[in-house]
Amino acid sequence: MSEWFNQKEKCAGVLRIKIVWWFCIVFGRRAARFLIFFIVVCAYPFLAEARTSAKKFFGVLNEFEKRREISPTKPRVFRLIYNYALSMLDKMLSLSGRIPKNCVFFENSHDAEEFKTLVNSGKGAFLIFSHIGNFEVLGTNGAAAFGTRKPEIFALVENWSESIFRTEFLSKSKENSFHFLDVSNINIATFGHLDAELERGNLIIAAGDRLSKRAPEKFFEEIVLGKKCNLPSGVFQLAEMLKRPVFFANCAEKNGKYFATIKMAEFAKSKRRGENLAREYAAFLEKSALDTPLQWFNFFDFFKS
Question: Which keywords annotate this record (predicted)?
Fold first, then answer.
């Protein structure tokens, strides 16, 4: 297996996506889920890398659960891949304004209240999310769920134009407060732009569980589920440099509804702040994986030997 940026998108042809989208618009989300099921059944024999990655994840998870005397999660490789395909549909539905606002909820916590207070006071923040669940749903519906004002959201991505899924999402987007910012060639001007948006009270979001394609050799080695993994040092260093409050967040689907979890980072209390921020995030990622293992959408060589 290889890093995420070396893998070709599977079942992501433009025509196939358009057919699924048309089917969803005409017959509804539930019918589209059945269509996606048959697409995944047909594609499953050809998804060798995804199957291998999923099996490795369940192996790591079960080994960790055994050591902690936690009830083992049943390895369900097909279900995990099917859930990922469903999440792609919900991303498009969310960005096109077709996910009902009352389908997104936040888990009650002190950190969630801190975030709500921060946003409503007009201040900006840096959110580090993971590829567990469906963060786009949170990004487009979070304000309604929180009862907050609606800040602009800038999602940092790499190689935007190379992703068929992303370009299709953007073409269907009616969410004018959710922006994708390609940072493949990040420089001082990019930093200034991000700082200005935070000063305006907007939100910057970035993934903390995937290495940068531009600089894959720059990482912090951390432990998740008892195994070593490499987390992108640039994300955590950027969050430190911007000197704004940092939160970890994800948004997982449960019985047709989405529940967001948010945690405020405490790295500012330490000296080696970027590295300690990554360590805090690794603990958050581990708990998220334990809570929603069937929405672990990192189909690449995440855990290192």
Answer: Membrane, Transmembrane, Transmembrane helix
